[in-house]
TrEMBL record:
Pfam families: 2OG-FeII_Oxy, DIOX_N. Residues 165-268 form the Fe2OG dioxygenase domain. PROSITE patterns: FE2OG_OXY. Belongs to the iron/ascorbate-dependent oxidoreductase family. One of its GO terms (molecular function) is metal ion binding. InterPro entries: DIOX_N, IPNS-like_FE2OG_OXY, IPNS-like_sf, Oxoglu/Fe-dep_dioxygenase_dom. This is Oxidoreductase. Keywords: Iron, Metal-binding, Oxidoreductase.
């Protein structure tokens, strides 16, 4: 149901056409696949999970210092219960997260001008945390951009179609911590939602909980393959492809033991115009700036005002 694709077939050149065809089928069907052979160093993956553990283990007062509520740029610590990914449910997600965006200089004119999403990251006082997070952000973004080459080919576009669209991106890296279930009725780790961006690259720690609901079907568990990425199509790419690709609802149940995950939301540069790609038929949606689309989606998710 959720296919496993080996990116080496594409990167090494041994089976580029086969990989592109399999990716295209997954993107049009379940909207989810597992990606092996992606080339991201397992030590970097382990490093980011270890830093996540160190951060979430800090006293509350330390985490409060980097609260996401202190900035309008969706960067920092989001406490347990802040978000409601299923905004229709009335249920708050039982998870905490730490988020970074494209790392910007505090004196960058766009930061000084207060442009949306052009902010600086907040950092906890933890040795190695900043370097590890930034190294992982760069590696995961680069993987996302390489994946976009295969996506371009699948859509009969030039392979480099998306290459220039991700150098100062809206992309966000989020480490997540789900505390163990208490057994209370109706608890949810992350409410049912689809992701907002282009593609999401998710690293999981082996503790079950993530489920997807392919269109018209029942909820199914996403298997864990050590070191592999759970890749899914986001709403922005669905819109961009004029609904040829599918972004699929997913959720996280409260886990038996604590659960960690690392989500890289690959997003384009703010000024990229998301308009029906060539060859995808009569446009169903009006063109929109990537930043405006993302803002509209984030506004619906946060249950407290960010940036207050
Ligand atoms: O933690 C997970 O496995 C998934 C998280 C997720 O879907 C999200 O943050 O968008
Ligand atoms: Fe998600």
């Amino acid at each position: 149901m959720i296919p496993v694709l080996d990116f080496n077939r594409f990167s090494s050149g041994t089976d580029r056409d086969g990989f592109v065809a399999d990716l295209g089928a997954a993107a049009r069907g379940p909207g989810f696949f597992l990606l092996t052979g992606h080339g991201i160093d397992p030590a970097l993956q382990a490093g980011v999970l270890a830093q996540a553990d160190a951060f979430f283990g800090l006293p509350l007062a330390e985490k409060e210092k980097v609260s996401i509520l202190k900035t309008p740029h969706y960067r920092g610590w989001a406490h347990d219960g802040l978000e409601s990914l299923d905004e229709t449910s009335g249920q708050k997600d039982r998870k905490e997260s730490f988020n970074i965006g494209y790392d910007m200089d505090p004196v960058d004119p766009r930061v000084l001008a207060g442009e949306p999403f052009r902010g600086v990251n907040q950092w906890p006082e933890l040795p190695g945390f900043r370097d590890t997070m930034l190294a992982y952000y760069d590696a995961a973004l680069a993987l996302g951009v390489r994946l976009c080459r295969a996506i371009a080919l699948d859509l009969s576009l030039p392979e480099d179609h998306f290459d220039t669209m991700f150098h100062e991106p809206l992309a966000a890296l989020r480490v997540l911590h789900y505390p163990p279930a208490t057994g209370a009725a109706g608890e949810i780790g992350a409410g049912a939602h689809s992701d907002y961006g282009v593609v999401t690259l998710l690293l999981t720690d082996g503790e079950p909980g993530l489920q997807v609901q392919p269109r018209g079907g029942d909820w199914i568990d996403v298997p864990h393959v050590q070191g592999a990425y759970v890749v899914n199509i986001g709403d922005c790419l669905m819109r961009w492809t004029n609904d040829i690709y599918v972004s699929t609802p997913h959720r996280v149940l409260r886990p038996k033991r604590q659960r960690r995950s690392v989500a890289m939301f690959v997003e384009a540069n703010p000024d990229v115009i998301v308009a029906a790609l060539p060859g995808t038929g009569a446009p169903k949606y009006a063109p929109i700036r990537a930043a405006d689309y993302l803002q509209s989606r984030l506004d619906a998710t946060y249950t407290e005002t960010v940036g207050g």
